[in-house]
């Protein structure tokens, strides 16, 4: 049996071999090169190139030459070469992403999503027009399942920075006649679920200060008073409700970083950025100094 066009998971290859009692050979290549290499996916992740074809790395990427090729061809895939005749596929160059300083592959994340029992189809999406901290979204077709159940499976398989925020359950993905998902169709799907393609900044309330006589300050390092971080987080929650409505509830604060000391009587302001419908990034600023920042998980009650 032969397989090409899309990466084949080892689990699926083994299942097909067991069911059909025949070896499954996966083909690696492209429109520009034709077939370059094959592997028996059920047994190995390594591709072996065809006779006389050779691979080499350059500043522009991996180049294939020799054999049936008329000249050197730079590949669109990112390959980890074992030598000039064998390699593993890391993903397409256009498919690689960077979130919180870590690199990943959308194709690999998609593969993990559809491996979750009960997920019929799924895809990760990263908006192009994202400023600051990047957040992935995922869409999944999983009848009878909840987003929480899917996320519990994903936490065991992928790095936490790549967990989707949010994970949206849909009836079907907008695949075209060839079964592909275009960026345009995913943008339309995100818009339908009111997932913003861009973070929107919201400056909150007017600048404020904590009085030196405030109970939260009294006794907090006598002779060298500072504003407690717990009081500051409580102020952030209040400011979020002032800006986004009294029905907003803060469910958790998964990230909070205190970067500088805030003194009594010092004027400061709080700024929010809406990451998704249920997440807000916050920053506490004094003049040109950032005092604290982090993320709130929120819920808007009716």
Summarize the structure.
The protein is of the alpha+beta class and 302 residues long. The chain is built from five helices and 19 strands. The protein has helices spanning 10-20, 106-115, 147-155, 183-192, 229-244, and strands at 2-3, 25-30, 34-39, 47-49, 53-58, 61-66, 73-74, 77-83, 86-92, 96-99, 102-105, 121-125, 137-141, 167-169, 200-208, 248-258, 268-276, 279-286, 289-300.
Description:
- It is built from 5 helices and 19 strands.
- The chain is of the alpha+beta class and 302 residues long.
- The protein has a 6-stranded mixed β-sheet, covered by helices on one side.
- The protein is elongated and about 80 Å long.
- The protein has helices at residues 10-20, 106-115, 147-155, 183-192, 229-244; strands at residues 2-3, 25-30, 34-39, 47-49, 53-58, 61-66, 73-74, 77-83, 86-92, 96-99, 102-105, 121-125, 137-141, 167-169, 200-208, 248-258, 268-276, 279-286, 289-300.
- The model has no long low-confidence stretch (mean pLDDT 85).
- The protein folds into 3 domains: 2-90, ANL, N-terminal domain (Rossmann fold), CATH 3.40.50.12780; 100-192, GMP Synthetase, Chain A, domain 3 (2-Layer Sandwich), CATH 3.30.300.30; 200-300, Thiol Ester Dehydrase, Chain A, CATH 3.10.129.
Q: What are the main properties of this structure?
A:
302 residues, alpha+beta, Rossmann fold, GMP Synthetase, Chain A, domain 3, Thiol Ester Dehydrase, Chain A, 6-stranded mixed β-sheet, 5-stranded antiparallel β-sheet, 5 helices, 19% helix
């Amino acid at each position: 049996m032969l397989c090409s066009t899309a990466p084949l998971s080892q689990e699926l290859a083994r299942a097909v071999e067991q069911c059909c009692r025949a070896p499954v050979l996966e083909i690696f290549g492209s429109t520009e090169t034709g077939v370059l290499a094959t592997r028996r996916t059920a047994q190995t992740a390594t591709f072996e190139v065809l006779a006389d074809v050779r691979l080499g790395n350059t500043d522009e990427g991996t180049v294939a030459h020799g054999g049936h090729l008329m000249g050197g061809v730079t590949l669109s895939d990112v390959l980890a070469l074992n030598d000039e005749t064998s390699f593993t596929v890391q993903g397409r160059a256009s498919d690689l992403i960077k979130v919180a300083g870590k690199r990943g592959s959308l194709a690999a994340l998609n593969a993990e999503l559809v491996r979750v029992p009960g997920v019929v189809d799924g895809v990760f999406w990263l908006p192009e027009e994202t400023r600051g901290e990047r957040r992935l979204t995922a869409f999944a077709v999983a009848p009878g399942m909840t987003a929480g159940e899917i996320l519990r499976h994903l936490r065991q398989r992928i790095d936490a920075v790549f967990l989707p925020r949010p994970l949206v359950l849909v009836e079907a993905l907008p695949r075209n006649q060839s079964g592909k998902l275009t960026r345009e169709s995913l943008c339309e799907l995100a818009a339908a679920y009111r997932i913003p393609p861009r973070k929107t900044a919201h400056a909150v309330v007017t600048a404020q200060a904590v009085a030196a006589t405030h109970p939260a300050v009294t006794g907090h390092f006598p002779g060298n008073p500072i504003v407690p971080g717990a009081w500051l987080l409580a102020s952030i929650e209040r400011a979020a409700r002032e800006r986004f409505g009294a029905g907003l509830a803060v469910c958790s604060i998964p990230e909070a970083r205190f970067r500088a000391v805030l003194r009594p009587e010092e004027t400061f302001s709080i700024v929010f950025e809406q990451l998704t419908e249920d997440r807000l990034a916050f920053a506490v600023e004094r003049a040109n100094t950032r005092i604290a920042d982090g993320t709130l998980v929120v819920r808007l009650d009716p």
